[in-house]
Amino acid sequence: MSDPRRPEPSFDWPRPTPRDQGGIGTMRGRTIALAVAFCAGFGLLSLRAVQIGLFRPVDEAATAARAAVAPPSKRADIVDRNGQLLATSLVAHSLYADPKRVWDPVEAARALRTVFPEMDEAELVEKLSSRSRFVWIKRRLTPKQKQAVWELAQPGLEFIEESERIYPMGHLAGHVVGSMHPDGSGINGIERALNDRLTTGAGTEPVRLSLDMRIQYILERELGEAATAFRADGGAAVMLDAKTGEVIASASWPFMDPNRPEAHTPNQQNNRVTNSRFEMGSTFKVFTVAIGLEDNIITPESVFDARAPMRIGSEMISDFHAMNKIVSVSEILAHSSNIGTVRIARSVGAPRVREFFSRLGLMEAAGGELFENARPLLPKRWSEITAATASFGHGIAVSPMAVAGGYAAVSNGGHYIRPTFIARDPAVPVSSRAVLTPATSKTVVKLMREVVTNGTGKNADALGYEVAGKTGTAEKAGPNGYDSNRRVSSFAGVFPASDPRYAIVFLLDEPKGNAQSGGVATAAYAAAPSVSRIVARSAPLLGIAPTRALAQMELPRAPTQVSAPPPKTNPSQKATQGEP
After folding, report:
1. Is 282 annotated in the active site?
2. Set 250, 252, 282, 330: catalytic member
């Protein structure tokens, strides 16, 4: 307890002097100033953060990369008539570098070669030392390659997304489907022809082609084997639906894989079905006979003198194997008489021959939708001699597709339908033009069937199915006239003969004889056997029943072995050959 007599202690602090008051005010001002400074600093930092987030400065390298590639948009798929995927688009990653951010170009180049050993180190160092803000290193990496580059942890290496076009079927129908530029545009085939359609509204319905990959495989296998066996410079094969004009299969040899367009030479990229022109030889005799029948100038029983070569102007027309007798129209086709065919053409007249060939599509580009679509090489003037030689396929050069279209027209009841690679809607009527009466068409098919049963086309007949058609062996023109050592061997026909539904053309460019063919490479041996196998394998897949029980038919006989090549024609005589 406190003592009441003692005074309480005083806590009255001494008051500050004026000098002291000035010091305290200065401290308070500094504190406030410091607080304001901190607030201002934080405010500026916040504004900078917002600026970076909303208005990020442009990265020159990234901008250049985006400008160098097409946006990875979805391109429409391409499928065959049955929905088999032929082309589709996937997102891929490409590698580029910003040289200004590369620390050590030599080290980075050596590191990259551990992932891409095929790259040249000196070229990489040069790229990575560039003053540019953007250089390509590798386009469209695999996932494994991308991961490997990522693990290198090299500054200055970046990825960008691109759209990569994939062709799952490889070289199958490669010339038709086509390929793509890195910039996203089509190089050739459907990819180029329908580029706008594939990119406009892409991602919806795929583009459905008329091709059937089952038949395409058969066609390519037979073409590749025949071209290899006969050491041909090239080859072409095409099958059309004669009633709709749809291309069921189309093969050009050498084949082309659209996944690697840069790996193929221009020769390999050439689509010989639509973009190459050949003098098709005796396959044209069917067209000449057809117009003679249509105009009632001849009948199958009409006869012509083929006992000796005939001269027209300065040209001598003869037969490869002269029959030296009076021959009927049926024999003219079955034994491929040039003399008899020319006599029919002269009876018809040059203007009518030219007009009929035009109506058959033989005087126009017939390659459907493709840009690779060569126009024919035609006589400058249709004189008597040019019409005579054109009547058996010389002096006029057309694509195999044009011949297929012509054979479809003369066998389907007489209607020319322009070939197409796009699947038709069954509900939409097919546009066509009449070229023959149904009666004439039926007679032409009957005569073509006799070529296969009794003439030069025997090796084209198929077990259980009726093939009708015509062989064609044509010498190739050179600087000094026709060269008997260089030829085009082909077979053009239709099946089944009882009700033709499909037209087929099979061609080898400059085939050479082999032991199996007895040293010859005429159409009867180089082309016809392949057609037989194609029809036998394709017909069941196309829903065509055999004409009679296979068990009741004789097994096909092996081709007759020829002991020596047939005698060569005189190069001074123009277009004298036929088929043995």
Report:
1. yes
2. 282
